[in-house]
Amino acid sequence: MVTEKAEMSFLEHLGVLRRHLIRSVIAVLVLTVLAFLNKAFLFDRILLASKEPDFITYRALCRVSEWFNLGDVLCITEQPFILMNVDMSGQFTMHIWVAFISGVITAFPYIIWELWIFIKPALHVNETNYTSGVVFMVSFLFFIGVSFGYLMIAPLSVNFLGTYQVSEMVSNQINLSSFISTVTTITFACGIIFQLPIVVYFLTSLGVLTPQTMQYYRAHSIVGALVISAVITPPDLSSQILVTLPLLVLYEISIYISKYVLNRSNSKHEIKS
Question: Domain containing 64: what range?
Fold first, then answer.
């Protein structure tokens, strides 16, 4: 199989890649249409759910407050802001955009699988064995990140930004596009950020990265995590901490993954010698 792929011309490779891309686009479009047709569920039950005080995250925070006898310190009983649309086609445009984002997120495992099927024939047998679970792990980490962003970062960001006031004379009337952009950006960004262990795995396998390098730059990683959290979250300390801590945990896990890959590679070379 590797030989057959090596004998293919550049244009033939592009033709194969084109077929994989077309199938991925079709999958995204199908799921986008399904999301578009389920407007009430998509918006009322998912996207706009964090606007309501009975959102699962707010209820969990209230229970935590009760467990530690803090009264209602962590309870969120109201969201004193309203969503508004100021463009004639604003709601329709947002409907299409949110449906598309939903299509991309739900089709993500299939997109990764198509990419893997395209790359797999170029790998050696041992490389294929080492990366056999890559589609599952990439998809698993992506959905863990998306869930973390949706359930933790996004609602806290919505609560902070939606309730923040410079003066009681100024009420918050938030544009629908701004609300949707905040929630989708945070959610999708967390899914991508959680791919760090996978990136480290492949970079170490290629000899580009070593665990010693990651340990040397550990202090720099803290600064990098703070910068990333500041970019994808509002200027809210609690939200930034909630993003920074998982990033640091992922970095430490990635160091152990890098050590594992390096030790496995060294053991293989020792056996050959």
Answer: 2-152
Helix, strand, coil content of the chain in percent (nearest 5): 75, 5, 20
**Which stretches of 2-153 are DSSP H helices?**
2-6, 10-37, 39-40, 56-67, 90-119, 125-130, 134-148
Q: Classify residue 168: in a domain, yes or no.
A: no
Which residue bears the tokens 């896990």?
253
Structure tokens at 82: 């309203």
Query: In this structure, is residue 242 part of a structural domain?
Result: no
* Span 26-41, pLDDT tens digits: 999 999 999 999 999 9
Top-ranked range on mean pLDDT: pick from 7-16, 40-49, 121-130: 40-49
Whether 229 maps to a domain, the answer reads no
Instruction: Report the length, in residues, of the chain.
Output: 273
Residue with tokens 């905040």: 182
Give a yes or no: residue 77 inside a domain: yes
Q: How many domains does the chain have?
A: 1
